[in-house]
């Protein structure tokens, strides 16, 4: 038996249908990383029943379906077909070739097929289990599996041997039997409980049958009494339903009338709401316009202030720079002086040339005389010393002349360079000085601009802070008045009762200033009265809750009335000094119609004139005919007046706070603009100062550089002069040497005369003194001319610069004058705009007040309308509640009647018509007597206990069921004993198979370990040898040269070889038709790899090996080589190559 082919369709990276045809022996699958080699191993495991997504290197099982790559779209299913050559009959199926197919869809559905026929996962597992292939898949060694083998628990290692020994199908049989046994135990427990329960129920049923016969007589009497009582109850309920219907009709009429009133009030409310909406829009528009004009007024005011400051700031400043004409005159003088210096230089140069000619003549004469003398003197010496020394001297002097001339030329070049550097530095320094002067002149306007901007910003900030202080004061005033109102409300007298839609009478009457005590005295106890509608309901509430004395004023029933009486001079009606809400004008007018306001002296005359009147003074003294009330009255009126006064102050503070908001907004904008201008001016001044400082540093650096270059030029000129002198001296020495060589043979031995030479020397010395004086004069003249040469140009440039600076200054002064004139014009225009804005603001204020008043009026009317709607709605709700309660009562009465009828028909079994005709109460009917008769019969029936009329039938049926369940219980007990016997037989088979396999694997492991670790020791040990059914397996490995007791101390390669040793031992002990190994040799060096390949070649003799590898030695021993590649489209492709049989 061996694997014949593997076909993949849509499995992982195998998007296209791909078939791998395997051969017996070793089949190697090679390819680069990520090309899909390990997907072949996953496909083999998957088609043989693997259901762990983690084992298949995925997050979920649907990940095995090709997910798309590049231009290839995702597929909807994955399918793998494994074809096995079963010609040796290793699989328990009558086919020489077996194909196993597994198919999975995107929705998670999965299918299995065996030779094209539908199958279950269990069928596939049982088919393969006889070949040692189970759920542990020990024949497939994937990546990382070797480490898992050693790190797994001993019980998990046991599963590998069980799978190879074919124990798994027996374990499944045992597990199946155990599950049946567990289910059977549940059935057995249920049968036991049922039979016990039935046995307990048999005896009570016998007693119940006897009691049922006694209860029949008593039940007849109970039925008759119940029928008569039910008839009486039904008649009573019908009469009650008639009364409820009559009351419901009355309530419906009242609801209809109130609904019409509510609809009218609602229509009025809708109309007022529309008016309020329009008034609100107008008020908001006026408020917004006022805010905008306030902000504009503040900005215009800020503009006026700034323009006034700019109109009086920045007076004209006279120009303080040098006079340009004077600089031009100085430049002309410098040019004239330069011409004189140049002429002096030419005269000095001509004189020096003349003296140099004299020097040359005297030098020639001296030279000739000296040469003649020296020639004669040296000729004598030369004859004595020889010609050789003269020749050496000639050569030395020639070298000195050449070197001296070269040094002089080099120094001349450096002298020109130093002179050029000095001129460049001087010119750059002069240019920088001009720039510095120009920038210094430009700084004053920038500084003035910064000063003005900073002052304006400070003024704007001061104005903004002032406005913010006013805003905070107003906010504190608003908070103070709100607290005042809350405190007054808390100190106001509390009413003994709180009624819905009833309000204190002080909410609807407001005294004029100073009339609080007079009004309070006039109202007396009525000052704490409540005003509202429907006094009857309020009285019911007061009586129900036993509330103390309370005064109620019903606004809906009082009529307006004023007394017709003549008042004495100085007296007036108190009603003329109070403001009364229109809605409550009638009752309040009736309360105060007889009260006259007068002083204490006139009060008696008022009472005497008309005894019907009451006279009250502003201090609260109330007088009537024959009585006087003095002292403070109730605090309700005064407190209400204080609350109203505080509300007015609060409204005024809120209005002022709203007014200042617009002004504050304009001030914020003006301050922000001023800050931006100040920051810009400061930034420009800082940038200008930074540039000026940089130029000053550069000028200082160039001045030092020019001075250094000038000093260097003077030093270099001295060095040039010295080099020229050394060259002249060297030439003279050379000429003397040459003359000596010419005269050496003709000179006589006599001592020559020195008179001619001495005279020539004296003359030459005098001429050289004149030459030195002329040189110094020429050098001095040249230096003075050089220093004065650029002075005229510099003065002319300075004059030009001063004219430009003066022009800029005059232009700046003109700009300042123009700015002042512009500021004055802006101030004039801004004042005109300010007046216009003030007028517009006044108009806006008036419009805002008008719209606010309109809004307030409409809002008040809307509030009254809503109050009326709310009161009507509450009345309607109460009537609706009453009607609803009436409807509920009617429904309940109907339900009770229906229940009574249904009860009569269902419980008593009598139609309603029969009940009313036969059992209706007559004039002599006594319901109490009937109830007593029913109670007596029921008591007699109750003394019998529970009665079961079907006791006999139930007893017989229960007895038959008990006998049937007893037989079933015996059958279950027998089946349980049979299953326990099956489990014992399976345990024996498992024990035998595992024990044999264990001994074989235990025997093979040391040999395989020794092959992989020559000189090492390894063995397998049982954790519980006394229990072979559950014992685990431990691995002991000791590579050569190491003494380790824990597998975790082994290296990565040693762990891999140890795990391979265990697997190969299992393979050899219980061979499987094929093995799949995925890069198991990746961590091995060449030596260990060769040892592992040797084991592969041994396994090849009995099994088929499919190896995923990167190692060339492994490829060399393969019979078939499969190349796996993946292009840019993400799809795996396979090519195969049959290899020649390996010789070694």
From TrEMBL:
Keyword Cytoplasm: yes
Oligomeric form and interacting partners: Homodimer.
A biological-process GO annotation: sister chromatid cohesion
Entry protein name: Chromosome partition protein Smc
Region called Disordered, residue ranges: 781-811, 845-866
Keyword Nucleotide-binding carried by entry: yes
Coiled coil start-end: 167-201, 227-289, 324-491, 643-751
Signal sequence annotation: none
Subcellular location: Cytoplasm
GO CC terms of this entry: chromosome; cytoplasm
Ranges where the SMC hinge domain occurs: 499-607
Keyword entries, A-Z: ATP-binding, Coiled coil, Cytoplasm, DNA-binding, Nucleotide-binding
Residues annotated to bind ATP: 32-39
Description of its domains: Contains large globular domains required for ATP hydrolysis at each terminus and a third globular domain forming a flexible hinge near the middle of the molecule. These domains are separated by coiled-coil structures.
Family, similarity comment: Belongs to the SMC family.
Alphabetized GO MF terms: ATP binding; ATP hydrolysis activity; DNA binding
HAMAP family: Smc_prok
């Amino acid at each position: 038996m061996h694997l014949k082919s593997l076909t993949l369709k849509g499995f992982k990276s195998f998007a296209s249908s791909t078939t791998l045809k395997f051969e017996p022996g070793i089949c190697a699958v090679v390819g680069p990383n990520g090309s899909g080699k390990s997907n072949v191993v996953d496909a083999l495991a998957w088609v043989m029943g693997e259901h762990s997504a983690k084992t298949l290197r995925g997050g979920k099982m649907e990940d095995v379906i090709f997910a798309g790559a590049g231009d290839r779209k995702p597929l909807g299913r994955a399918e793998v077909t494994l074809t096995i050559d079963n010609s040796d009959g290793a699989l328990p199926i009558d086919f020489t070739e077996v194909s196993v197919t597994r198919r999975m869809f995107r929705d998670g559905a999965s299918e299995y097929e065996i030779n094209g026929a539908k199958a279950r996962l269990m069928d596939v597992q049982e088919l393969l289990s006889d070949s040692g292939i189970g759920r542990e898949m020990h024949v497939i060694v994937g990546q990382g599996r070797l480490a898992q083998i050693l790190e797994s628990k001993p019980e998990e290692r046991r599963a590998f041997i069980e799978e190879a020994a074919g124990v798994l199908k027996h374990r499944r049989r045992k597990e199946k039997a155990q599950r049946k046994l567990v289910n059977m135990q549940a059935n057995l427990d249920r049968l036991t409980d049922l039979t016990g329960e039935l046995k307990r129920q048999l005896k009570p049923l016998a007693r119940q049958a006897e009691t049922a016969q006694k209860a029949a007589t008593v039940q007849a009497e109970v039925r008759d009494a119940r029928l008569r009582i039910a008839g009486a109850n039904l008649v009573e309920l019908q009469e009650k339903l008639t009364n409820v219907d009559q009351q419901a009709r009355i309530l419906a009429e009242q609801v209809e009338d109130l609904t019409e009133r509510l609809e009218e009030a609602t229509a009025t409310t809708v109309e007022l709401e529309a008016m309020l909406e329009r008034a609100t829009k107008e008020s908001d528009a006026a408020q917004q316009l006022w805010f905008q004009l306030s902000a504009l007024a503040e900005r215009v005011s800020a503009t006026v202030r700034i323009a006034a400051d700019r109109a009086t700031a920045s007076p004209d400043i006279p120009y303080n720079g040098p006079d340009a004409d004077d600089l031009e005159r100085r430049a002309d003088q410098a040019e004239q002086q330069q011409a004189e210096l140049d002429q002096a230089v030419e005269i000095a140069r001509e004189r020096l040339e003349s003296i140099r000619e004299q020097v040359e003549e005297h030098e020639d004469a001296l030279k000739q005389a000296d040469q003649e003398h020296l020639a004669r003197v040296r000729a004598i010496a030369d004859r004595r010393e020889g010609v050789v020394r003269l020749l050496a001297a000639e050569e030395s002097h020639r070298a000195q002349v050449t070197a001296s001339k070269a040094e002089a030329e080099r120094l001349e070049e450096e002298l020109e360079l130093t002179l050029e550097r000095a001129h460049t530095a001087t010119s750059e320094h002069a240019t920088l000085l001009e720039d510095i002067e120009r920038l210094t002149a430009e700084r004053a306007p920038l500084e003035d601009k910064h000063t003005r901007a900073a002052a304006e910003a400070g003024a704007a900030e001061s104005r903004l802070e002032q406005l913010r202080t006013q805003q905070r004061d107003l906010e504190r005033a608003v908070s103070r008045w709100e607290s005042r109102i809350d405190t007054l409300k808390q100190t106001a007298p509390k009413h003994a009762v709180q009624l819905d839609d009833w309000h204190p009478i002080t909410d609807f009457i407001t005294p004029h200033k100073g009339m609080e005590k007079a009004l309070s005295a006039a109202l007396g106890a009525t000052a704490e009265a409540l005003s509202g509608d429907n006094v009857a309901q309020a009285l019911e509430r007061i009586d129900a809750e036993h509330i103390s004395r309370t005064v109620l004023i019903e606004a809906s029933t009082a009529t307006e009335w004023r007394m017709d009486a003549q008042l004495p001079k100085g007296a007036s009606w108190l009603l003329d000094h109070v403001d009364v809400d229109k809605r409550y004008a009638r009752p309040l007018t009736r309360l105060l119609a007889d009260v006259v306001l007068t002083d204490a002296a006139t009060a008696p005359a008022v009472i005497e004139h008309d005894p019907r009147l009451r006279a009250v003074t502003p201090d609260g003294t109330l007088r009537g005919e024959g009585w006087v009330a003095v002292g403070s009255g109730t605090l309700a009126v005064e407190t209400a007046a204080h609350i109203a006064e505080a509300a007015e102050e609060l409204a005024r503070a809120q209005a002022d706070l709203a007014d200042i908001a617009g002004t504050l907004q304009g001030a914020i904008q003006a301050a922000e603009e001023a800050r931006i201008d100040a920051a810009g001016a400061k930034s420009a001044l800082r940038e200008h100062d930074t540039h000026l400082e940089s130029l000053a540093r550069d000028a200082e650096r160039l001045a030092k550089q020019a001075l250094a270059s000038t000093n260097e030029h003077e030093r270099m000129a001295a060095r040039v002069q010295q080099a020229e002198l050394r060259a002249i001296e060297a030439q003279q020495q050379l000429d003397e040497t040459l003359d000596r060589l010419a005269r050496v043979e003709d000179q006589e031995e006599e001592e020559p005369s020195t008179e001619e030479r001495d005279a020539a020397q004296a003359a030459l010395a005098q001429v050289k003194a004149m030459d030195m004086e002329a040189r110094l004069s020429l050098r001095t003249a040249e230096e003075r001319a050089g220093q004065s040469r650029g002075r005229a140009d510099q003065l002319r440039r300075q004059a030009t610069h001063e004219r430009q600076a003066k022009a800029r200054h005059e232009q700046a002064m003109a700009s300042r004058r123009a700015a002042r004139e512009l500021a004055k014009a802006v101030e004039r225009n801004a004042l005109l705009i300010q007046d216009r804005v003030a007028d517009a603001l006044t108009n806006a204020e008036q419009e805002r007040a008008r719209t606010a008043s309109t809004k307030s009026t409409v809002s008040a009317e809307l509030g009254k309308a809503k109050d009326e709607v709310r009161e009507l709605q509450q009345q309607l709700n109460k009537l609706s509640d009453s009607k609803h309660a009436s409807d509920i009562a009617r429904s309940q009465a109907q339900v009770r009647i229906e229940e009574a009828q249904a009860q009569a028909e269902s419980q008593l079994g009598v139609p309603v018509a029969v009940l009313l005709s036969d059992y209706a109460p007559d004039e002599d009917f006594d319901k109490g007597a009937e109830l007593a008769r029913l109670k007596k019969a029921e008591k007699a029936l109750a003394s019998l206990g529970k009665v079961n009329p079907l006791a006999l039938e139930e007893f017989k049926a229960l007895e038959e069921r008990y006998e049937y369940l007893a037989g079933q219980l015996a059958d279950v007990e027998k089946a349980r004993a049979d299953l326990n016997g099956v489990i014992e037989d399976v345990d024996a088979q498992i024990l035998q198979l595992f024990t044999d396999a264990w001994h074989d694997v235990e025997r093979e492991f040391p040999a395989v370990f020794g092959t992989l670790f020559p000189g090492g020791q390894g063995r397998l040990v049982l954790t519980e040898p006394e229990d072979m059914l559950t014992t685990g397996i431990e691995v002991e490995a000791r590579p050569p040269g190491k003494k380790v007791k824990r597998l975790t101390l082994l290296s990565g390669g040693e762990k891999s070889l140890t795990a391979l040793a265990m697997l190969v031992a299992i393979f050899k002990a219980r061979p499987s038709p094929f093995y799949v190994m995925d890069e198991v040799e990746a961590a091995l060096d060449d030596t260990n790899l060769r040892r592992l390949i040797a084991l592969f070649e041994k396994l090849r003799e009995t099994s088929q090996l499919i190896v995923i590898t990167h190692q060339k030695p492994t490829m060399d021993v393969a019979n078939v080589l499969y190349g796996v590649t993946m292009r840019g489209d993400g799809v795996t492709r396979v090519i195969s190559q049959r290899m020649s049989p390996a010789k070694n």
